[in-house]
Amino acid sequence: MRWHNETDGAVTALHAALRTYPAGEHRSRALTLALLAQLLLDMGQFTDARTMWRRALTGYPHLRSARTTAALTTVGQRLSRVGNPGTARQRCFPAKRGKGRKH
């Protein structure tokens, strides 16, 4: 049960950290929310994990960070195994427009 207690403590600490970030601190907030979602998934709290993931996605359009993209993608893939988070993912990770792509 020690692992469970440590995980609960980490979840509490991450929630506390989220309250300290300034409004414009999108990258740190997104990474913290992604980590929180991972821990909640590990604990079997799928609804709460999905909520944290969606909160992280709201700040994603303001970011250009491979680390954040990887973290959010990992959470999205894990969530997709337990339910369909596709609509939020499609809305926040749209196909990037670039050369050679027709839209």
From TrEMBL:
Gene3D superfamilies noted in UniProt: Tetratricopeptide repeat domain (1.25.40.10)
Region named Disordered: 80-103
Annotated Basic residues bias: 94-103
Superkingdom of source: Bacteria
InterPro entries xref list: TPR-like_helical_dom_sf
SUPFAM superfamilies: TPR-like
Name of protein: Tetratricopeptide repeat protein
Organism: Amycolatopsis sulphurea
Organismal lineage: Bacteria, Bacillati, Actinomycetota, Actinomycetes, Pseudonocardiales
